[in-house]
Amino acid sequence: MIKTEKINRIIFIISLCILTTLSWLPVLSVPFINDDFQILGFHLNKNFLTAFEPFWQKDISQYYWRPLGNLLHPFMLITFGFNALPFRILSLLLNIFCGVTLYKVLSKFKISDSVSMIISVLFCLLPSHEFQYTWIADQGEILLAILLLFSFYNYSSLFIKNERKEFLIYSIVLFLAAALVKETAYAGILIPWLGFINSDKTWRVELKRTLLNTFYFALVILTLVLYRVLVIGSSPLESNHFASINPVSMIINFIIYFFLVFFPPEVLEWLQYNAKNFFVIIPISVVTILLIIFVVRIFIKLPVNRKKIFFIGIAWFIIFILPAVPVLMRWYGFTASIGIMISLAVIAEAIIEKLKWKRILYYLVAFIFIILCFINFNKMQYWKAAGDKLKFALGELSKEKTKSTILIWAIPDKLNRIPMMKLGVRETVQWALNDNNVQVFAPLRVELIGNEPGIQLNSASTTELQFEANGARFMKEGGKSKFILENEIERYRYEGNEYEIITSFDKNKLYSKVKIRLNQKPDTNFDQFYFDGEKFVRLEMK
């Protein structure tokens, strides 16, 4: 029996690797994109010794302090050089390992092997985890989730293996490692209370142990904070997240984060756009209500031990999403989403146990996995297209001889919702020009839509600039891209100049134009470029 279980688990791990790799395969050919140049640029000149400097001094993370997480990138650069493929492989492997770790935790709760495998594969195939596979900067988030899962796994062993104290030590050490990867881990101080939920002892006895173990976890955080303040010279309170605390926004963000566990933000934007369309909202509302009733009915009939595990999943989500609710960033919900997977596993197991025709359900699951693989594979093709376009544009820009300061109009923000130069504009241009001293300004952005977007310069004088775009929309600096396109007019002032952006969308055709009144006298000591949809073109004033 034990041998059969081991064989099944080996088959599961192999299947998980194959399915996950096939689902996200095109990501392996995505060049560096967005802020990859910025993130990796900080580590290019590091060696094995200087890579450890963040442990005793401030580093690139500014008001963050993530010394262990920031070891990943310099070690990868030292080992493999400035090559995108090893970083893509690392993201893939980290996600697979996270899925395997989730499987181990579910098995610890005695969730059936088949359900544990299904939920773990589903977790790795969720389209909402797109950024965890494509965004190099988010590799630390995956590592954080793995360490917290293992910390909880070892803490849970206290209740199974005769309360052997070494499991508490393992749990605390892994919690410490997670806290050195990302500050979100600080919420893990409540891991002992997740164990409290699942305890079979009387609550008085377990409460005493939980309070004591919480003290140990709190001692880790207190030590880290004191070390950070006294040695590093920074504080977690420096984060700008604390300036964004708004109770109403936090509640809304909490709900949205739950939604983002399963769906990408484009679906949310579509729902917001159709909020007043009863033919859309009513069916969705009815299905949602029926689904909630269905889950509640199943939950009521669950045995007590399974209800505890369900609550552990919900508690995990709440604990690790609370640090993120002051702001809304789609990638912040990755670690918290594991809790929803745990609760979902409990419900799925209860459903499968009652089914007579289990094979039909397994066929349905296989069909869902195929659909998810198709969605992810197709989305990664968009990432590859955006990466290739940026690579070509930067290659052409690298041939230019520029002054010490350059100004770029219509910087490509996104292509088909994939970030090209959304972040790290200065560092990306500096890398292309092989000059870390060049100053870069980008006062106007453009979002590219479709396969052949084009931007052209209509006029350029010392007092006014006019651009027009087909298959693209101009955006102000700091503006947001849109999934739902519509007609809009935007007028604003930025750095002393006046902008008027007119965008029209009709019969799947997108057109945008911008007029810029230059109130500031042009400086002849810098070069100007604009992005024409394919490359950066030098702009000459007349």
What does this structure look like?
The structure is a single chain. The chain is of the alpha+beta class. The chain has two domains: 2-376, no CATH class; 398-539, no CATH class. It contains 17 helices and 13 strands. A five-stranded antiparallel beta sheet has the order 6-7-11-10-9, with no helix packed on it. Strand 10 and strand 11 (509-517) form a beta hairpin. Helix 5 runs parallel beside helix 16 and helix 7 crosses helix 15. The longest helix is centred in the C-terminal third of the chain and has 40 residues, at 358-397. The radius of gyration is 26 Å and the shape is globular.
Keywords:
542 residues; alpha+beta; 5-stranded antiparallel beta sheet; 14% strand
Order of helices and strands: HHHHHHHHHHHHHHHHEEEHEEEEEEEEEE
Instruction: Give the CA-based shape.
Output: globular
Give the count of structural domains. 2
Structural class per helix/strand content?
alpha+beta
Q: Give the strand tally.
A: 13
Largest sheet: 5 strands, antiparallel
Number of discrete helical segments:
17
**CA-atom Rg in angstroms:** 26 Å
Share of helix, binned: 40-55%
Mean pLDDT: 88
Quaternary state reads single chain
Low-confidence parts: none
Query: How much of the residues is beta strand, in percent?
Result: 5-15%
